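Something for you to look into today, if you have time. Just paste the record in under my message, thanks.
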Amino acid sequence: MLIKKVKLYVCGPTVYDLLHIGNFRGPVFFNLVRQWFEHLGYQVTSALNFTDVDDKIIDRAKKLEISSQNLAEKYIEEYRKDYASLGLRPETLNPKVTETMVEIISFIEGLIKKGKAYEHGGDVLFSIRDFPEYGKLSGRKTDELQPAVQSDLGDSKKNPLDFALWKKAKAGEPSWESPWGAGRPGWHIECSAMISKHFGEQIDIHGGGLDLLFPHHENEVAQSESLSGKKFANFWMHWNMLNLTGAKMSKSLGNIISLREFLQVNHPEVYKWMILSVHYRSVLDFGEESLLRAVQGLGRVYSALAMAGEYLSSESEARNEKTEIPSTKGAGSAFQKNCDLNWQKVSESLNDDFNTPEAFAAMYDVIRTFNGQVKRGQASSPVIIEKARAFREFILEFGSLLSLFQEEPKQFLTILDDRLLAKMNLQRRPCSPLLMNEPLHDFKKILRSLMFCEPNSPSLEFQ
C-alpha cells in the first residue's frame, strides 16, 4: 500500500524576545493544515525552524551582556511554553541554524562549484544574474528591483541585488570556521540548508508570513533550485499580517502585545478562534470587535455542547441504573443528515485553500439547527439523545482539526464569564440566580444581568 506523504516546512521565529500575537498566526494555522492532511490519510512531516543566529539576537545579547547562544536558548524555551499554552501539537521537527552549520557550508560550496555564487574577501554572495528566473515567486523583475536591504558588503557585490550566503566574522560576534574563513551564514541560506538536510531537494508545502515572500522566499527559491536543478516547493502558503485595532503592530507605535500578555486576560481558545475564523490570506484585525465576536462564538459553541452533554449524561445515568432505554436507531435521522451535509461543506471549504470562514459557517448551521430542535429543560427522549450525540460528534471532530472545543464545556463557560467580568472590573458574587445559572458569554448579557440585580445587591461590585 502506497503511503501518501506531505513534507511541510514553515519559517519560524528569530528568537531574541517573547513573541507577539502576530507571530503565532502561522503556527496556529499550520497546525490545522497538518491535521487536515492527516485527516485525509496523509503522513505529514512538519518542521518549524528556529533562527538562533541573527543580528537582532547578537545586538540584544550585547545589551544584556550574555552570550547570543544563551539568549537564543532562553527564548526558544519561552516560545515552547507559549506554544504549549495554545494546546497545539508539537511539530515533527524544530531545526536550528546552529545545528545546521555543516550543511550550510556544504550547500554554499555546491553553489560556488556550479558558478552560482562567488567569494570575495571572506564573504560569499549569490549571483542574481546567474539565476535567470529570479523574481518568479514574487512576480518582481530584476531590472525594476532595488536592493531589499542596505548591505554592509560594499564593493564586494557584482550586482546590487546579490545577497549574502556567508558573512565574514566581525569582532565580538559568534562565528564558525569555513573554507572562506571564520564567519556566519546569511539569513536566506539557513532555511534552504535546513530543508535540504531534513527533507531533501524538494518539499510539498512551504509556509511563512507574507512579509517573507520577498526577498527571503524568493532567495530560497533561487539558491535551492540553482543547486538542485529541481522545483524547490510545490506549494507556497503565505499568511497575511495582523493589525491591532486597525494599525500595524510596531515598536515605534508602542502597540506590540506578546502572546503571553494576551493570554493573561484571554483564554487560549479565544486566540485560536480569532486566528482561524478569518482566512489565512486576509489581514486580521485584533481589536475589541473581533475579540467580542470570538467570545460570543465560543460561548455559543460551548453552551450547545454543555446542553448536549447534559442529555447524554442523563442517558448514561439511566444505563448505569439499568433503566430500560428505548432504541434510538433511526431517531433524529434528519438532524444526522444535516450534520453530514455540513461536514461535506467543511471538507469542501478546507480543500478550497483552507477557507475556514466557510467551514465555520457550516458549523454555525449545525448549531442553529440543534438549538432550534433541542431546548434546555426539555424532557429527554431517544430522538433528543441521538441529536445530542450527533451534534457533539460533529463539533468535537471539527474542533479536533482546529485544536478548539476540547475544554470541558461548563468549566470553560465559567472561565469565559469570569474573564469577561474581570475585563469590566466586575466581580461575580453568588447571590443572583441569573448570574449563577446562566452563562454570560458576551458583554451584552453582562449588562442585561446587571439590570436584574437590586440596587443594593452584593451580586456584583465594582473594584
